[in-house]
Amino acid sequence: MLKIFLLVLFLTLPVIGVSAETENNLHFHEPILITSAGQSLDPFLVKAAFDQLGIMTELNTLAEKEDLTQFEQVVFVGGYSHKGISSANLSFNDEIQRINGLVNKAQENSIPVVFFYLGTFFLGDQREKELIQLIVPYSGYVILYSGCKGPIDYIYETAEENDIPVFLVESVNELSKEISGFISQ
Amino acid sequence: MALKNSSFYRSLEKIFVLEDFNENKTNNNQKILFGIGFILFSLILPRAIQPQISFLLEDLRESVLTGDTGLLLLAATKLVFFNTLRHSPVITGAFLIGQGVSSKVKYNRLIFILSLFIIPVTFRAISAIYNIQFLFTGSIYVTVSVILVLFFITQKIPRTLIKLVIINLFLFGFDWLEIVPLLARFGYSGGEIAESIRMVSGFIGADYILNYVGLTVSLMIIINAFILTKVVMDHYKKMFLMERLRKAELQALRSRYFQEVKHLVHDLKTPLFTIQGLSGAIDMMVENPKVANFTEKISDSVERISSMISEVLHEKKLSVIKVKEITDFLKTYLSLEEQQEKVKIDLMTDEKILANKYLLSRALINLINNSLQAIDPQNGLIQINACEENGQVLFLVKDNGKGIPKEHLEKIWEIGFTSGKSTGLGLNFVKKVVEDHKGEITIQSKPREGTKVKIFLPKVE
User: Fold this and answer.
1) Which of A41, A52, A145 to probe by mutation at the B interface, max B CB count within 10 Å?
2) Confidence (pTM)
3) What is the ipTM of this complex?
């Protein structure tokens, strides 16, 4: 019996370890605004995962601070994309200002912020770090894909400095299952 | 019709269609120019494609939200098409520049390899211009490797167009591999959108379909490219063999032709002996001094003809003669020609040479005939000088005719090569005769200015 208990403990250690360390659980307050931070494709994956879980969300990759009023929570999905930015006819500065406005508005209205980072494609761009720095310090928690190609250490460090809990997702393909796992904790 | 007559069309035809451009410096320059054109085109192309990429991203986003595999497949197909469209001018431009530059220099293989560095440089330039990262992806690495292999195995194939078709087919096939999720594990990666497609494919459970479609289409294209390469190489191998066979046949023809001429000339000896004998008989039978004078002249002429026949029959037989004997022979020959007033012969030496008078004169007559065909009937002029230069005897045949195109200059000595109605044996014969005389022959020609042929022969003390 003790052996089985130890085995289960060993297998669930990564998730329990991170969560226990921060002494926090994942909570979602509906309706949720999902928006992009960098215009990558990742917010669409997150939206699809939330839809599979039946969580009420709205995806607006170009949401402005005025759009925030009708939501209880905002999820930023990070990931800088050259092609996404240019196809949205934005500059990087436009994107920074938009995110800043949203974060400030969320702070003013005490709307919880979540930073989601899947990092399915990363070019080693400094701009990715700028985006992370804009959102992570104001987030309630960070959900991070362990296999992401982005600056995972930098996200960890930023979260640690600001005492933000980090939840690790092991598989993007099973994203909804993993999120539901965190919710049930 | 107007397009076909344009100089641009002719340049394209020269570079991509005509078979003999490899030895043509002008076409190499044109290849470099077209290569630069392709590179410049590749710099402006991303701007034109950008709106299409936005539509593609829309398809991809929609496929994530709806889980629609068909939309994902459509986005993947569009991406491959646009990637090939963006990669193709860079690859084509670098290849053309590489071929053009390497054909002009000594270390052509090394220079070709070095010229392929144009590809990453262009990628960097595109990245800098559009503030994007135009990545040097897996398909480009493999395509560059294919270009190198093709360069070495198809060096003898002169058609650039067919090589470009093969290279671009391979490129298209390798671009398809970038969307195959299975290959990501082996480090065969693409750009941002290709990676996103792979991610979405995993997310909506379409890996199997994308693997299957990507690999099938890619393999079909790559196999076709291989087959085309093999067919082209076999075709040219066959053509080279046929060309060698044609030359061998011409050589045999030439040999038979001269053999028959020799038989004919040999047969001339019999009636000559009869003439000689009868002339002697007349001389003995008639005691008229006038008749004696005539028979003596007949006898001298027969002896001269006999001597000429002897030189024809024994072409290797050389004797010491004065240069004047050659120029006299030419003058005699030209006195029978209609255009004799266009030919000026200047003898400026009394040196002697070791020569077969008949063959050497025939060689010079060949050159004169070529000049007569090249000059303008109104203002044409042919100058023949026999003089001494650098301790050797020089025969110079110079005309102000239409000249020889650069691309033909290297080939004029080849047996069978002709730019007109001749047999293609003439200049090869001239060269052979000069070489048999231990001499040297050079040719200089400029289109619309004229041609200058110099024959240097060692003089005899």
Assistant:
1) A41
2) 0.65
3) 0.78
